[in-house]
């Protein structure tokens, strides 16, 4: 029996910066995906999921995306990337199970990919470094799920550790672990609105950022400062300028967030989170009414240091920074406000920075 685990992740600051060569602060949550399985004597792979009905079967020499069982694409996509790198081993049977709410902005898809990469690494006896496993997960997402994501989710899932914030430079791929704010927890509030990543909004935003970089004559928006952007604002159309303002502003906020973490300035970190959300709402237009409501309601409790949407956006979850002692009262206040406004229950997860893949 072979077993592997990878956690879900939360983006703390640095929204849509990863595929722009930018900076991110994120952390792994204390929940994730487990894959259990065993080798077979032939070249078949047989996949099951605790969350979805059906069995997905494929052959190691003929791996393609499935329309009928989209959940299997994250797994098969990873196997295809191993094969593409000339790696090989026996067929296998495997089942995934998860205690991560799916579609809630915790990147259950990256957790699946990373757990699969760890599983295969163990089953086939390969020794790829974690950064290569992250790239494999990302390529699986591009080719088998059709989302042109960056590396934030996979790197955080693989590099996250208990009590640590993962600081990523998505250009140099340098990863540093910074201590999470002591005596504080993160409350993840799932709006219940399914995000529309695959529906194309995400890929459209990415294309728009890349077009803005081209128009500005730089390789990526990472190369632009807030002052430089405003000086060149006339060379961009309104929407590309708004998208660029968000990404450039997020990079600056991550840099400031790193300092806040280093100085134990939890209030400063929280302010940056509120600013980040406001920029998502106004510039990147990847928020929605429910997420805006959640951030406003979090602030109104008087117990929240910072709140923002986390991940791709267009639904999904907010991340809220609160003192551990206030977590219960905060959750009760936020739940009551959401129920009153939206007539349905909010699903909340209180977590420390967790990890690690194994
Ligand atoms: C999703 C993607 C990531 C990243 C975030 C936004 O989670 O998978 O690569 O772009 O959105 O920051």
| Head-to-tail CA distance between termini | 15 Å
The chain-level mean pLDDT equals 95
SSE ordering: EEEEHEHHHEEEHHHHHEEHE
What is the class of the largest domain in the CATH system?
Answer: Alpha Beta
CATH architectural category of the largest domain: 2-Layer Sandwich
The helical percent reads: 40-55%
Low-confidence region ranges: none
Shape: globular
Bound molecules: alpha-D-galactopyranose
The number of distinct β-strands equals: 11
- With helices defined by DSSP (H or I, 4 residues minimum), what is the helix count? 10
* Strand composition percent: 15-25%
Instruction: Compute the CA-based radius of gyration.
Output: 20 Å
Q: Which fold does the CATH topology of the largest domain refer to?
A: Ribosomal Protein S5, domain 2
Outline the secondary-structure elements.
Blueprint: E1 2-13, E2 23-39, E3 44-49, E4 55-59, H1 70-84, E5 92-98, H2 108-124, H3 130-145, H4 152-159, E6 164-169, E7 174-179, E8 184-190, H5 197-216, H6 226-231, H7 238-262, H8 266-284, H9 289-300, E9 304-310, E10 317-323, H10 327-342, E11 347-351
Parallel strand pairs: 3-5
Antiparallel strand pairs: 1-2, 2-5, 2-6, 3-4, 6-7, 8-10, 8-11, 9-10
The structure holds alpha-D-galactopyranose.
The site of alpha-D-galactopyranose has 12 residues, from α4.
């Amino acid at each position: 029996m072979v077993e592997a685990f990878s956690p879900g992740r939360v983006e703390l600051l640095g929204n849509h910066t990863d595929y722009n060569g930018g900076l991110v602060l994120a952390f792994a949550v204390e929940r994730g995906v487990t894959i259990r399985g065993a080798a077979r004597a032939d070249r078949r792979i047989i996949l099951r999921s605790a969350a979805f009905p059906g069995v997905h079967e494929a052959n190691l020499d003929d791996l393609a995306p499935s329309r009928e069982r989209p959940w299997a694409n994250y797994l098969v996509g990873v196997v295809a990337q191993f094969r593409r790198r000339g790696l090989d081993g026996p067929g296998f049977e495997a089942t995934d199970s998860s205690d991560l709410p799916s579609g809630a902005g915790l990147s259950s898809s990256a957790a699946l990919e990373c757990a699969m990469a760890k599983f295969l690494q163990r089953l086939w006896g390969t020794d790829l470094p974690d950064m290569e496993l992250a790239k494999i997960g990302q390529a699986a997402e591009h080719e088998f799920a059709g989302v042109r994501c960056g590396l934030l989710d996979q790197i955080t899932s693989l590099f996250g550790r208990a009590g640590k914030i993962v600081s990523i430079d998505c250009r140099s791929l340098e990863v540093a672990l910074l201590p999470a704010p002591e005596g504080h927890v993160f409350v993840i509030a799932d709006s219940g609105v399914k995000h529309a990543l695959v529906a194309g909004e995400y890929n459209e935003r990415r294309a728009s950022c890349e077009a803005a970089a081209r128009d500005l004559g730089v390789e990526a928006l990472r190369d632009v400062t807030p002052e430089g952007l405003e000086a060149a604002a006339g060379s961009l159309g309104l929407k590309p300028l708004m998208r660029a303002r968000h990404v450039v502003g997020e990079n600056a906020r991550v840099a400031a967030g790193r300092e806040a973490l280093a100085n134990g300035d939890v209030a400063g970190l929280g302010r940056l989170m509120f600013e980040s959300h406001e920029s998502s709402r106004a510039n990147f237009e990847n928020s929605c009414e429910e997420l805006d409501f959640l951030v406003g309601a979090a602030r109104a409790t008087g117990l929240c240091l910072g709140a923002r949407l986390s991940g791709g956006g267009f639904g999904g979850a907010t991340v809220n920074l609160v003192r551990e002692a206030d977590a219960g009262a905060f959750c009760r206040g936020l739940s009551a406000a959401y129920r009153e406004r939206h007539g349905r229950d909010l699903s909340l997860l209180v977590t420390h920075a967790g990890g690690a893949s194994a």
